[in-house]
Design goal:
Layout lengths: L2 H27 L2 H8 L5 H12 L11
Length: 67
């Protein structure tokens, strides 16, 4: 094998490690709000909140906000 052929897997592995480190640093730079927004779809509370919203949605049609 030539030196370039031997070096290619090492270069590729180095690049993958650098990419993973960059991804980790981006996640750590995210604000708390951004992290919470990413976690929301995974939360078991979201379907319950949506159901509550749907239940009371009709009351929004009462036009009580005009009072």
């Amino acid at each position: 094998m030539s030196l370039a052929e031997q070096k290619w897997p090492i270069d590729r592995l180095t690049q993958q490690v650098q990419n993973k480190n960059q991804s980790k640093s981006k996640v750590s730079e995210m604000s708390s709000t951004e992290r919470q927004l990413q976690e929301m779809p995974k939360s078991p509370d979201i379907p319950r909140e949506v159901a509550i919203h749907q239940e009371f949605k009709i009351s929004e049609l009462d036009s009580l906000e005009d009072l």
